[in-house]
Amino acid sequence: MRVAVIGAGAAGLVTAHELGAEGHRATVFEQSHQVGGLWNYTDAVEDDPLGQRPTRRVHTSLYESMRVNLPRDLMPFDGYTFDDAGGGRDDWPRFPHHARVREYLHRFALDTGVGDLVRFGHRVRRVVPDDGWLVDGERFDAVAVCNGHFSEPRVPQLPGLADFPGVALHSHNYRRNDPFEGRRVVVLGSSVSGGDLSREVGEVAEVFFSGRLFGGAPPLPEQTRPIKRCPGVARFDGSDVVLTNGERITNVDAVLFCTGYWYRFGFLGSDLVSVGDNWVKDLYRQLIGVLHPTLAFVGLPFRIVPFPFFQRQARWFARALSGRFPLPAAAERCRAYHHEIGLLRESGVAERHFHRMEDRQMAYLNQIAAQCGDEPVPDWFVALWREHNAQARRYPRDYRDRSLSVRGPTTLSRSA
User: Fold this and answer.
1) Tell me: the pLDDT tens digits for 43-53?
2) What's the CA gap between 388 and 13, in Å, rounded?
3) Which spans in 22-167 are helix H?
4) Pairing label, strands 206-210, 25-30
5) Is pTM beyond 0.85 here?
6) Other C-beta atoms within 10 Å of 317: how many?
7) Residue 206: count of CB within 10 angstroms of its CB
8) How far apart are CA 387 and CA 40, in angstroms?
9) Engineering a disulfide at 411: which of 83, 244, 346, 349 sits with its beta carbon 3.0 to 4.6 angstroms away?
10) What tens digit of pLDDT does each residue of 177-235 get?
11) What are the distances in angstroms from CA 294 to CA 72, 144, 146, 409?
């Protein structure tokens, strides 16, 4: 089959690779002029600090000092390790700087030849079904959407924000902590990026780390730690920030929103994809359209080990297109979809977290592997993921610099 792949980041590159392994012909559309997607760091930021304007000038959301939050022996594509034998280096840190990940992806594109399949400088405008698919007027048998979901900033609509006199920006536009030196800063959002940036900004500023997870934190006057934890923000009152528990943070100089990103697919009509509360609806296995099985969305889930996850999803899709396994009929796909959503609702999961996998990812990957004839997730992978996850929760400040007892097949220094 001829397959259009939208995006040449990690998901797009490995999807093109897996499609080729099944004998399909992939064409990759990439709006920039290099592979790597969000891993191509730039100092540039949006003109709008909150990133709410419809036009997007900057698509990466990396900050200058960022190191990956996963050990590199957990990260690689199958058969392409993060060491001298693959696309990395033996002497790289176990939690390398983001520039090393970019190197890895650029080498993968070169060594596998998928870089030759990319049409650079082509921003896809329109994808429509028509005896297959028309991608900006060109006909394909299938489409894989791999455009990522870390470039459209999500900012909560909080009363008084428009009149806040200080600096308000989304983490999408954060690059380094220099501009915050000596300031009083509220970091809003208690997920991974909020934790990392509260610590980095806390090196030079007074930080109030705000989020739902800290609803039971002690009152602010009782906290002596450099970074004070507090509940979520209810509203802004001039330069003051009023919290959901009624406490007030006075004379705030800046607010850094670490509140995530939207799923956006401007090139697809609403009849093909519908997004609820940041939940992409009507997908079988969170991967293909219930009614459009030749339209795939690779890499929607978050809180995952991304590169191996993308590859297994791409392999499933490539084999589905080849007929290597019987894809359930539309009615059965619909039943499976509603069953999955029903279980999530019964478990109390909010819609905006329907794509949040975390511990569910191993069962999910084994499910699609069994369906398409792939190998299950290796035991060492599961063990390393669990050890790392536990350590990151226990030592959030310095887990990247601590050793892990479980090791994957990637070559590492013994001190790692």
Assistant:
1) 999 999 999 98
2) 26
3) 98-112
4) unpaired
5) yes
6) 29
7) 18
8) 29
9) 83
10) 999 999 999 999 988 999 999 999 999 999 999 999 999 999 999 999 889 999 999 99
11) 32, 8, 14, 34
